[in-house]
């Protein structure tokens, strides 16, 4: 599985001051809570947990411990948090005749602490590793780290002191820095205890990714991705209802499009708003989805009027790649993401995504009372090609141009509702027989779409089972929040070769909130 970096420095961007100023209006207040560590812990073997490692408690009496060169201790905060860490440090014994030199490591899961940073040789920057080396010339002091961290555990190693004195520590705490407080969200009554636990962890996951924007991950990347935003927004509508934050994100993307109309796959907000020069065909189109879903929930005519032209320009740009026979042909420099894996063909997925988003765009156009005939003709052409050429009636599945059948193609065509529900049910039934248990997919992003396609095609029990076997398995392995990547067939899989760079709280894994609300709770009302 891989993701190719794009470097498109020649791309020119529009910076729409009015839209960007609008985005600033919806910057949320930061909610801060002070969280104290729960206990000291130690790494121990546990074959039921991720990488066979867990942390068991030792004591909560930190201030009674004395530490010298090469000593190490682990602080356990009891849950995953995002914020700024501080700790009081003093010396005991003879006068302090040398600086205290310490290393701090922050970990979302215990397995991270079983690896050393110097072992890492992956394709993402080592700068993301949550590690600090600090020299302290004078004690006592309160060490307050300026960088925000995402963690449950803090490991502190005494690199050196002096033979004449010991270091002592107390008052270890963090100050959270998020735009919501998951303790204040109203949780629905869920009779199934396993689904209830999955829902609770999903709430924690979403909350810890909600800052001044919907971040993809608070540990690594820390920015706003369109694919993640679409799923976060859907989950937010069912939980925190921080809809102004969705609005802010929409205005950020709309205010920084490329001159030709493309919308960046992601944007940065610090030190100032800035679009990335990465473009993904499906992510660009999902701006339309996010706008559509926002209007469905909020029905704000001003937002639609201001952002529809951005959506239209993006859709018109994408429709340039439709051939006369009705198939979409994406250029190499505008790839389709769908999933990290490049081990399957994605041309059918691209066809389905543009059908999916074009239907939403037509709905938005109708809301404004504008002419949809051009777009309806395009949609008819796309769907006709999908039904007549891409669908293999003998196999009862959609087939890629290279002859390949894969799970993603069936899922996205079902989500796009190219066929009626009964045929979709049959297609997903065939896909279930052919592709389950799932292989070669390791992102909650794709697992979300598989699960929703099962729900939408009336395979309720299969969808619930998949949620339990995927998200529930992460909990069994010790997850406090859901992960960026997880392969149940290879639980220790990391796309970067080491857990110290992996994100164990990641936005696109929060969707059990949405799935449980829409397909379990609301369908049973």
TrEMBL record:
One GO-annotated biological process of the protein: carbohydrate metabolic process
Cite the Pfam families for this sequence: Bac_rhamnosid6H, Glyco_hydro_78_N
Q: Where is the Glycosyl hydrolase family 78 alpha-rhamnosidase N-terminal domain?
A: 43-175
Q: Which organism is it from?
A: Pseudolactococcus piscium
**Where is the Alpha-L-rhamnosidase six-hairpin glycosidase domain positioned along the sequence?**
191-520
Name of the featured protein: Alpha-L-rhamnosidase
């Amino acid at each position: 599985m891989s993701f190719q970096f794009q470097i498109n420095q020649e791309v020119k961007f529009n910076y729409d001051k009015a839209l960007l100023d609008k985005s600033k209006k919806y910057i949320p207040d930061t909610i801060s809570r002070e969280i104290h560590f729960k206990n000291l812990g130690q790494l121990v073997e546990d074959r039921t947990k991720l990488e066979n490692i867990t942390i068991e408690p030792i004591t909560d009496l930190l201030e009674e411990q004395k530490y010298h060169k090469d000593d190490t201790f682990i602080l356990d905060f009891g849950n995953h948090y995002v914020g700024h860490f501080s700790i009081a440090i003093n010396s005991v014994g003879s006068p302090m005749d040398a600086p205290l030199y310490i290393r701090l490591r922050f970990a979302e899961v215990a397995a991270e602490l079983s690896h050393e940073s110097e072992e890492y040789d992956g394709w993402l920057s080592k700068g993301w590793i949550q590690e600090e080396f600090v020299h302290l010339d004078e004690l006592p002091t309160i060490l307050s780290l300026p960088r925000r961290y995402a963690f449950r555990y803090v490991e502190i190693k005494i690199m050196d002191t002096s033979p004449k004195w010991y270091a002592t520590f107390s008052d270890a705490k963090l100050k959270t820095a998020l735009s919501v407080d998951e303790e204040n969200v109203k949780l629905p009554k869920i009779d199934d205890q396993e689904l209830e636990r999955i829902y609770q962890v999903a709430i924690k996951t979403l909350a810890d990714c909600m800052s001044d924007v919907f971040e993809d991950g608070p540990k690594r990347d820390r920015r706003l991705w369109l694919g993640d935003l679409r799923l976060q927004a859907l989950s937010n509508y069912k939980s925190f209802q921080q809809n102004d934050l969705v609005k802010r994100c929409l205005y950020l993307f709309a205010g920084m499009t490329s001159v030709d109309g493309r919308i960046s796959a992601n944007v940065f907000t610090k030190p100032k708003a800035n679009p990335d020069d990465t473009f993904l065909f499906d992510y660009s189109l999902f701006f339309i989805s996010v706008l559509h879903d926002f209007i469905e929930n909020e029905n704000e005519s001003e937002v639609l009027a201001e952002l529809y032209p951005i959506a239209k320009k993006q859709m018109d740009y994408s429709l340039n790649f439709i051939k006369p026979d009705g198939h979409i042909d994406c250029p190499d420099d505008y790839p389709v993401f769908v999933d990290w894996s490049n081990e399957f063909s994605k041309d059918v997925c691209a066809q389905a995504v543009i059908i999916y988003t074009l239907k939403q765009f037509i709905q938005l156009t109708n809301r404004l009372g504008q002419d949809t005939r051009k777009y309806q003709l395009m949609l008819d052409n796309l769907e006709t090609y999908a039904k007549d050429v891409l669908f293999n009636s003998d196999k009862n599945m959609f087939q890629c141009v290279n002859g390949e059948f894969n799970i993603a193609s069936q899922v996205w065509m079902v989500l796009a509702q190219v066929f009626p529900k009964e045929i979709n049910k049959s297609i997903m039934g065939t896909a279930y027989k052919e592709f389950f248990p799932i292989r070669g997919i390791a992102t909650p992003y794709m697992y979300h779409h598989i699960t929703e396609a099962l729900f939408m095609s009336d395979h309720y029990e299969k969808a619930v089972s998949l949620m339990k076997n995927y998200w529930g398995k992460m909990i069994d392995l010790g997850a406090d929040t859901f992960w960026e990547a997880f392969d149940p067939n290879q639980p220790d899989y990391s796309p970067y070769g080491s857990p110290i760079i992996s994100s164990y709280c990641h936005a696109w894994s929060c969707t059990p909130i949405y799935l449980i609300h829409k397909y379990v709770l609301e369908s049973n009302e």
